[in-house]
Amino acid sequence: MARWSPLALVVGLLAAVGLYGSTAAVAAAPLTVAQAISQQNASSATVRGYVVGQPTATTTVIRSGYPNDYALALADSASTTSTSNMIYVQIPSAFRASWGLRTNPSLLGRQIDVTGTLSAYFSHAGLTSSTAFAFAGTTTPPTGTTTPPTTTTGSSACEAYYTAACGKSGAALKSALNSIIRNQTKLSYDQVWDALKVTDQDPANANNVILLYSGRSQAKSTNGGNADDWNREHVWAKSHGDFGTATGPGTDIHHLRPEDVSVNAARGNLDFDIGGSAVSEAPGSYADGDSFEPRNAVKGDVARMIFYMAVRYEGNDGYVNLEMNNSVSNGTAPYMGKLSVLKQWSQQDPPDAFEKRRNQVIHDSYQRNRNPFIDHPEWVASIWP
Q: Does position 164 have pLDDT exceeding 70, yes or no?
């Protein structure tokens, strides 16, 4: 039997308790859900909690019948039912096949660790831009649990919603996306009022909406037609194709946004381009006789709404065929410009958290379809090179 010297025994004991010569890294303990809720400061953190359902609105978490794989809710107890004690986790496309509840309903009640950014999601304490998922207590997830889908388009994984568009480009991609997104629930023009109060809610004030061009936070209750009220702005001007406010393109909330009544009138049916005179009540916006330029913070939002309309409405389901061109004199023709400028704006102002949340809410709670150019900005250049 091997014999140990007294010194060797001491060294061995010290090493065993980590007090001598140990080079093992000691990882920071994950935050509890309660800690994560109290630290919504945009810092990166790992949060440990039990999967308690899927958030579909600020105060709604469902535990069955999951509509998609885009989000989950964590709590410090698997039996938690109060949304105030939950944190909402955004699931990026690369992780949805492995960690989304529609595909993996057995995750309900499991304790997991998620790494991401401590910031609001669904206007609720959240963990966004998640970069890692693992079952609690594992240094690396079990084989296959975080493997992204193998079929990709551009730089982003091609998630289940877009399966029919995977691998396509140009006209074929546009056609495939049309087939996907025209499968939607349609709203009446009156229903649009209530929808916009949810889709465009101010993340900092649940009683307000954010006006698109003005950037102003304004009470939801002040919707109407009087001076300084807010009303429903058609980003694709409804006279461009003469579709009015009838159900269809006239009520599609992917391009309808709250706006100050007078600013809405100043925009009118102008195409989009650079330049002009400052627009009163809309700092950073400009207009001239044939075009309108929105403030920098929403230039990309505007572009992606126009791209959506040009793909969604192809004249193949009883609605007008909408197309983009490089003109700013489109009048009542079913065209909208200026394509070259809108493409620049889309690159200049990529999708932000507000825009992504809006897209999700429209899908989950209203129309059941998505704006593909928010999920996949790279598809713009593929369809309109």
A: yes
